[in-house]
Amino acid sequence: MHLLYLILVDPFVQMGTAPDLLAQTLWEGLVSGVLYALIALGFVLIYKASGVFNFAQGIMVVFSALTLVGLYAAGVPALLALALTAAVMFVLAVGIERLVLRPLVNRPDIILFMATFGLTYLLIGIGELIFGGDTKQMIAKQLYLPSGAIDLPMLGGVVRLQKLDIAAAIIASVLVAALTVVFQYTRIGRAFRAVADSHRAALSVGISLNQIWIIVWFAAGIVALATGIMWGARSEVSFALEVVALKALPVLILGGFTSIPGAIVGGLIIGLSEKLFELYWGPLMGGGTESWFAYVIALIVLLFRPHGLFGEVIIERI
Amino acid sequence: MTLAHETNGAAPSSEAAPVLVVNNIEVVYDHVILVLKGVSLRVSKGGIVALLGANGAGKTTTLKAISNLLRAERGDVTKGSITFNGTRVDKLTPNELVRRGCIQVLEGRVCFGHLTIEENLLTGAFSRRDGAAAIRRDLEMIYESFPPLRARRHAVAGYTSGGEQQMCAIGRAMMSHPTMVLLDEPSMGLAPQVVQEIFDIVGNLNREQGVSFLLAEQNANLALQYAHHGYILENGRVVMDGTAENLRENSDVKEFYLGVSEHGRRSFRDVKSYRRRKRWLA
Predict the structure, then answer these.
(1) What contacts A212, CB < 8 A, 6 or more positions away?
(2) I need a surface site. Which of A88, A230, B114, B233 has the fewest CB within 10 A?
(3) CB contact under 8 A, A190 and B123
(4) Chain B residues within an 8 Å CB radius of A206
(5) Residues of chain B with CATH 3.40.50.300
C-alpha cells in the first residue's frame, strides 16, 4: 500500500506543494527536449532521403563542433569560423555522396547502414588526428550567445531560466520552422519528399538524386552544427557528446522515423518525461533513471504503435 | 524475318526524321546476365511506336536502356549506340536526358504515394528552368488533358485509383515538356475501359502536341490500334517489325500475339513449340 502511495499519489502531492520546482523541471525538460529534437531531425532528414539510419549523425555533431572550436583556436574570427565550418559540412556532404552513396546506390539498406558505421569511425579518426582527443570549450560568447540567467519569481518561488537555454530553444524553433517550410512548399522540398517516396520514380522524372542527397546531407550537417554549438555550450565539446545521439533513437521511435513534426514532438515528450520521472519517481529506485527512461518509453511505443506517433503509415493498395 | 526486309523503309512513318535511334544495343545486368542481344529500333518525329513481346522479352530493359535508368539497377549498355535528336545519349544521366526532352513513365505507374496528385505533377517539372508561370500554365493543360486529375488534385496519390495513378504518372512526365515519352505497360492492372481512356489520351497528346511515344505493351491488339509502327521482341532480340497495319494483318503476329489464326484457337502449348521451330529453324 505504501509503495502504491509513493508511486501514484506522492509525486503529484509534491508537484502540488512545490509548483515552482515543477515549473523549473518542465523548463529544463523542454530545453533538453528541443536539443533531442534537433538531433532527431538530422536523422529524419537523412532517413527520408537516403532510406538509411545514419549512425554517423552523432559524430557529425561532435565533428562540426570540433571544427568550429578548432578553427577559432587557429586564429580565425568566430563568425568566419562558423561560416567555414558550414563550408566544411558542405564538403563533407559532397564527399559522402560521391564516395559512399553513389557507389552503393540500389544496394540493400543494411549495407548503407554499415557504411555509416564506417563513416563514424572515419570521422572520429580524422577528428582526433586534427583536433586532438581532449575536451574543449565551446566559443559561446564569441558567437554572441548570451550567458547568465533570468530569475522569474512565480508560483511562490523562483524559476531560473538560463539565457543560453532560451537562445537554444529559439534557434532550434527557427531552424525547424525553416526546414518545414522548405520541405513543404519549395521545388527542392517537393523533390526531397518525392525521393523519400520512391527513388526509382524520382529518377525517372528527372530529379537528380545526387543533388538531393548533397542538399539533405548538408542540411543534416547544419542541424548537427547547431546541435553541436548548443550542446557544447551547455557542457563542453568532446567525443563523449556522440552518445547524446543515441538519445535520438527513442525520440525517433516515439515520433516516427519519417516525420519532421514527429521528431520535434518526440524530442519534447522524451525530454520532459525523463526529467519529470527522474525528479519525482527516480528516488524510488535509487535515481539515475534519466539514462534509461527514454528507452522504456520507446519500448512501450513500439508495442502499441510501431510506426511512431507521426510516422508515415504505409499506404498500400491491394 | 522476311517481313522485316519487306517493310523496312517502305513504312510511311520512317520517312520522317527519326527522333530516337537505337542501334544494335546489348544490355548486361550485373556484368553477367545478357538481357538484350542486339536491339535496333527507331522512332520518327511525332510517331507512336509499339514495342511488343511476352514477359521477359526485354521491353522494359530496352526502355530503361534508352532513359538511362538501367545504371541504377546495375545494368549496362555494353554494345551499340542510342541517339536522341541526333546526339549520342547513352552516357547521360536520366535527369540530363529529361532536360533534353526524353522521359520514361515507369511500369506499374509508381506515383509518389504520399504526395498529392498536384505535387506529383509538379515534381515532373523539376528539371525545367522556364519559371513558375510556364509551369502553372502547363499544369492547367495537364488538367485539360486528364479531367479526372483536376477533381482529385488535392488527394494523396497513394489513395487514388489505378487509372488515376496512371494518368498522374503520364501527366507528371508531360510536365517535363518532353518531345519523346517512353511509356512502359500503361495497361497494366487496369480495367479495359480505363485502358481505352488512357490510350485515347496518349493518342490525343500525340496528335495535338506532337509528342512521340515509344510504347511497351503486352496488349498487342490495343497497342497496334494506336501505334504507327511496331517492333516485336523475343528473348532480347527484335524478331519482326513493320507498320502497325502490316503487323495487324500478319498471320504470325495474329497467331502469337493477337490469339487468332486460320485454324481457330490454339492452345499455348502448341503455339510454343511451333513458334520455336518456326523462328529458329526457318
Answers:
(1) A49, A188, A191, A192, A195, A202
(2) A88
(3) yes
(4) 94-95, 97-99, 103, 124, 126-127, 176
(5) 2-242
